[in-house]
Amino acid sequence: MNDLMIKHIPAEQRVLRDWNGLTEAEQRQASRSEILHELTINNSWRAMSRYTRSQILMTPSDHILELINVRVEDSWTSNMELRRIVEGNIGC
């Protein structure tokens, strides 16, 4: 992919990756939702994964287990709702 970019896109038109820097929202110590919003709007997926990983690592381990349980319950509820929808469509 990098070779194709070098071949077809002039250097001044290529987007530079920010490997180590903080986003503007992180620099001004904005709320978590503001930081995630900025990363999403800017399509900064690497920065989002870096930020998310740092947040997970800073979270106490007992709280992480609690969050995983909530996520599993949400997934179970979503799957049951989807099953009801599919069964309803089959019955039509």
- Provide the β-strand percentage band: under 5%
> pLDDT average, as an integer?
77
Radius of gyration: 20 Å
First-residue to last-residue Cα separation: 48 Å
Order of helices and strands, N to C? HHHHH
Overall body shape = flat
Helix content: over 70%
Content-based structural category: mainly alpha
Largest sheet: none
| Count of the domains | 2
**Total helix count?**
5
Explain what this protein looks like in three dimensions:
The model has no long low-confidence stretch (mean pLDDT 77). This protein starts with a helix and ends with a helix. It has 92 residues and is mainly α. It is built from 5 helices and no strands. It has 2 domains: 1-58, no CATH class; 60-92.
What key phrases describe this protein's structure?
92 residues; mainly alpha; 72% helix; 0% strand; flat
Detail the topology: elements first, then pairings.
Layout: H1 2-8, H2 24-27, H3 32-41, H4 45-58, H5 61-91
